[in-house]
């Protein structure tokens, strides 16, 4: 069936509809430059409310294995690809990508020039769009322009707090704040801790203090960090009582608490091939990233620890004289390189150093 991607500036890209063609929705259109890892991208809660354009031309060729899911369901609004593989050429594939998307009621637009869409977004900015069967009136454009991904953190966080038993019998207890956490972040913490307790985004300080953890972890998640004023106020009441590590949205929230600012980027960083440089020793690491907002500004209490090689944006900070640090990129990858997995060990070392 023929379909279209309509962007809010009026640009139209024609293609073929696959997946669940009855689920035609509006979302923020973003691009991802990863060559593999489409399943992890689709199930990453940080993509909630977005239509993802994959720049690599062939997507789906190794199928889907449910163990690779990063959450309990697909979180994107839609997927745009040059070619969707009809077959899965991998020993561990359980179903095809098209079957997976139908199961999760996600629409795909195939057969478009995804790199042309990417260039348009890079030149203009990230914008809203709609995958649809027909483009019939100006009302569609108003519907697209009016779309807002309003406080999506509350839509992807856990509905209730829960405990995960860790692999280290003599390890530490970590309170994990779930803003839309990926499964592999939990896996990496679980490997290194005695116990994790995962808290809802709208936690209360009393809940954290009652658990009495050795450390606090602030996860990734979708949306504008400046909208989360209630969460920021709650974090302020507990963050300095515990060694703290933040990733992605968690990093942005820490920055806001300590006098830095955030702003929406022109087109964001999404992919498994973003170089960051350590300000400490000038080493460059290739990182996995997924964010549309960045940290900027200066404060005498904040030290910049990592910087993006390409655009010089802030990629990591630590709070001076506090056991608090954060990074904008994803050290757990999934998908992406494992260059910065050592950051989880740095966090555990800080917890052990508190004794």
Verbal overview:
By secondary structure, the protein is an alpha/beta fold. The protein has 2 domains: 145 residues, Glucose Oxidase, domain 1 (3-Layer(bba) Sandwich), CATH 3.50.30.20; 201 residues, Rossmann fold, CATH 3.40.50. 23% of the residues lie in helices and 32% in strands. The strands form 3 sheets. A 10-stranded mixed sheet has the order 10-12-11-13-14-19-18-17-15-16, sandwiched between helices. Strands 1-2-8-6-4-3-9 form a 7-stranded mixed barrel. Strands 5-7 form a two-stranded parallel sheet.
Please state the second-level CATH architecture of the largest domain: 3-Layer(aba) Sandwich
- At the fourth level of CATH, the homologous superfamily of the largest domain is Class I glutamine amidotransferase (GATase) domain
Q: Give the helix level as a range of percent.
A: 10-25%
Count the strands? Answer: 19
Q: Encode the helix/strand succession as letters.
A: EEEHEEEEHEHEHHEEHEHEHEHEEEEEH
Indicate the low-confidence ranges by residue numbers. none
Q: In total, how many domains does the architecture comprise?
A: 2
- As a whole number of angstroms, the C-alpha radius of gyration is 20 Å
Largest sheet: 10 strands, mixed
- Classify the beta-strand content into a percent band: 25-35%
> What structural class results from the helix and strand content?
alpha/beta
């Amino acid at each position: 069936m023929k379909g279209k991607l309509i962007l809010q500036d009026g640009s139209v890209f024609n293609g073929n509809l696959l997946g669940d063609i009855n689920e035609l929705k509006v979302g923020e259109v973003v691009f991802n430059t990863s060559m593999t890892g489409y399943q992890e991208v689709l199930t990453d809660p940080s993509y909630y409310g977005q239509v993802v354009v994959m720049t690599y031309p062939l997507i789906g060729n190794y199928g889907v294995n449910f163990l690779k899911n990063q959450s309990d369901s697909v979180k994107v609004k839609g997927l745009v690809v040059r070619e969707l593989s009809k077959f899965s050429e991998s020993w561990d594939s359980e179903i095809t990508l098209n079957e997976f998307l139908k199961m999760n009621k996600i629409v795909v637009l195939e057969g478009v020039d995804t790199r042309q869409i990417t260039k348009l977004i890079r030149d203009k900015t990230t914008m809203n769009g709609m995958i649809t069967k027909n483009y019939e009136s100006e009302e569609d454009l108003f519907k697209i322009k009016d779309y807002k991904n309003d406080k999506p953190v509350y839509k992807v966080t856990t509905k209730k707090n829960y405990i995960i038993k860790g692999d280290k019998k003599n390890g530490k207890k970590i309170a994990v704040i779930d803003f839309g956490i990926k499964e592999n972040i939990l896996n990496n913490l679980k490997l290194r801790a005695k116990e994790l307790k995962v808290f809802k985004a709208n936690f209360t300080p009393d809940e954290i203090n009652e658990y009495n953890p050795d450390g606090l972890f602030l996860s990734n998640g979708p949306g504008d960090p400046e909208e989360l004023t209630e969460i920021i106020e709650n974090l302020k009441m507990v963050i300095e009582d515990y060694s703290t590590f933040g990733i992605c949205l968690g990093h942005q929230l820490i920055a806001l608490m300590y006098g830095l600012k955030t702003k929406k980027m022109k087109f964001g960083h999404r992919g498994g091939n973003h170089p960051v440089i350590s300000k400490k020793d000038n080493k460059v690491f290739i990182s996995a990233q997924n964010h549309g907002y960045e940290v900027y500004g200066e404060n005498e209490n904040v030290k910049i620890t990592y910087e993006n090689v390409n655009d010089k944006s802030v990629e990591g900070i630590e709070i001076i004289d506090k056991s608090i640090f954060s990074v904008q990129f994803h050290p757990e990858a999934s998908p992406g390189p494992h260059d910065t997995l050592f950051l989880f060990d740095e966090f555990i070392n800080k917890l052990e150093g508190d004794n």
